[in-house]
Amino acid sequence: MRPPPRGEPFTDFDELAEELAAQFNGDATALPDEAKSEWSEAELQMFFASGGQITPPPNPKLRAAARELEAKHDLRSPAQIEADAALELAREAAQKAPWWEKVTELDRQKAGVYRDAALARGIPDRPHGLIPADDPHFRQLHKAKHILPFEKHILFWESSQPHIKGGADGESRSVALHADEGYTHGDSACAGRGLDLRYFWDSSTLKVVAAVAYSQKAVGGWSAVEDETSTRWRSTLVHGGLLEAVLDELTAEVMKINIAPDMVTSEMTVRFKKPSSPGVVYKAEAAIVDVSPPLVTVSGRILTQGDEEASLVAQLQGEYFCDDVEPPPGALGWEAGRLREYFEAGGA
């Protein structure tokens, strides 16, 4: 999914130029010097689409007239229009959430920045992916218009991260940046840890829904002498710690995209119901259960697929703590119940 059009001055000009050059088989180094400071994204796109033949008029008045015409007519590509519509749908859905009035304005702003960036990015390609493209559950997730793919981002907020710059005045800004790789996501997780977890935000239920699959690298152990795919000596079950990591990841992301990107896991309980095997695609989901700031209760579960009713593989119940709320002195190590009592008593 492509993000909305960007305006100059660009903070990611080189990335945008390379992206458009690749799209139209052009050369990013052919751009004139003034392109970075003066051209809009639509003008950059026109330059590459025309093979470098069409450039904006140098006369400021003509440029202003062209911009005015641009504003009156929708020059976005169909993909951009679809992406913008999806983001607008997500914003409207977030404002209808039952906890909207319970969270602070600051957390609403942070969640909005995180959600827009994550949904605009989608899920990059994974060359070593473990989920077949024709898997029924995976196809259903991609087909539904209200189910939007995303991946973990890291939030940087205003002056707390002064090295993140943006805007004409050069002041620090709020931004959520894509985490290219991580323990539970990205192509490195597929190739190195035998885990392919792909999650989506369901704007109709506000849940995070997912497909997850494992390879032999995720099992409890295998012979160092044999190839990892050999069946002569190895465990045939996925390590339970990896299932815990999947559930922790999903419940954290449902918290971040809905309520507060600045958060930490306070307490979680995982129950295993049946074993998991490599080479099988499972369904997973996470949901907000209760919002009592600064504590949020979440649930998550992994299920089997099938024509009959899905079977429960593992489930999680957890408490997450909004990290932008100042915890009481000495609270490190407190159980979630004690934290809740502290804040319900007004911090006494």
From TrEMBL:
It holds the Pfam family 4HBT. Gene3D superfamilies: Hotdog Thioesterase (3.10.129.10). This is Thioesterase domain-containing protein. Residues 238-309 form the Thioesterase domain.
